[in-house]
Structures are given as C-alpha cells and as structure tokens.
C-alpha cells in the first residue's frame, strides 16, 4: 500500500512563485494545488482538503490575512504566510489572525521546507501529551516540572506557564499578544514589558548562554519561538 502524499495548497498571484513551489514541492513528494486569488483559495482549501496551506499576504482581490481568518472559521489546517521582509506589523497581524508561521520574501526553499515540516509535525502530534520534549528541555505537564539535561529547574508559576505555552507550540512563532493572552489573560495584551522580563528570567534558568539562546529565540518585533534541537 502506498503512503498517502501530503497535499499543499499555494495561494499566490505570482506565476513564478507558484511555478517554483510546484516544481520544488513535487520533487519532495507533495501533492500540489494552487489558487491565484483569496476567494479561490478559500474554495480550494475546502475542496482540495490540503494538509498545509501557503498564502501570500498581497493578493489581488483581498488581504491574505482575511483569507487566513476565513479558513480559520472552519479549519485548523496549518497555514504559512509569505510576506515581504519589512512588513513587521503584517506578520504580527497574520499570526494573530490564525497563521501558524511566516516566511519572508525572497525566501529559500530550504527555509520554507523546514517551516513546513515543523507545522506538519505539530499538526500530527497531540497537544495533550503529558510530557513535552524539546531536545534536552523536558516539560512534565502532569507534575508541572521542567528539567534541562536531566537537571530540574526551579520556576515561578508564571515562568512555568510561559515555557509551557511556548513548548505546546514548539517551533511556531508566538506573538507578544498571543503569549500575554495565554499567560496573563486578555486584559494584559498590551503589556509587552511583562514578556521581556519573564523571557529574560527563563533564559537565565534554562539557557547555557542566555545572551546566545538555543531554545527561546526572539523573532524581532514579532514575538518568540521555542526551537528544539533533537
């Protein structure tokens, strides 16, 4: 019995981008479908039933963020958005709208494929695992314990909640607003200084070299990502 090929839907109005992705993804064994407008992208997402969707934010008929929102109304399929490098607020808005990750144009296929693998792996794994492993970093959700290299780390309740949220979405960038809402609640979504303080404290406890973190990575101006080194 042949293994099911994973399906990728690309929503982008640039023919050269679609051609590049069609050839590259096909060479990696993915099944490919495409749409050139946001409206068609929403329809194709429903009919093609992709395992992952790649959406350009600059579409001719509607904003890519609105496509993300429309799909999120009925689907939790992983979504990666394509943005131009200087659109920091666009990245934040797309992630807050429900995108899982972003890749900046011009992008390398290696970077895009890595982001895709992380998103697909996360979608396939259960979010209710009792123990979350990220390289040497282990978070025991039942015992509320955190260890690095077998050594237990003493965390405050807030530090624990922050590392737990990052670990539950490991590999994915979380915006300041998403982290604040998850850890402190919706009344704190503008208080980004909380995040900086607690991330600094976590790094001092978890990272071998807090100035050059391996686990908690800053996505400049956007948020943070927990990277696993398995």
Automatic annotation (TrEMBL):
Response regulatory domain location: 7-120
Start and end residues of each OmpR/PhoB-type domain: 129-228
A single cellular component GO annotation: protein-DNA complex
Modified residues (4-aspartylphosphate): 56
Protein's recorded name: Transcriptional regulatory protein KdpE
A Pfam family assignment: Trans_reg_C
CDD domains to which the protein is assigned, alphabetical: REC_OmpR_KdpE-like, trans_reg_C
The keyword Zinc-finger appears for this protein: no
Protein's GO biological process: positive regulation of DNA-templated transcription
Gene Ontology molecular-function annotations: cis-regulatory region sequence-specific DNA binding; identical protein binding; phosphorelay response regulator activity
Residue ranges of DNA binding: 129-228
Role: Member of the two-component regulatory system KdpD/KdpE involved in the regulation of the kdp operon. Upon phosphorylation by KdpD, functions as a transcription regulator by direct binding to promoter regions of target genes to positively regulate their expression.
Keywords: Cytoplasm, DNA-binding, Phosphoprotein, Transcription, Transcription regulation, Two-component regulatory system
PANTHER family to which the protein is assigned, alphabetical: KDP OPERON TRANSCRIPTIONAL REGULATORY PROTEIN KDPE, REGULATOR OF RPOS
Localization per record: Cytoplasm
Main location as per UniProt: cytoplasm
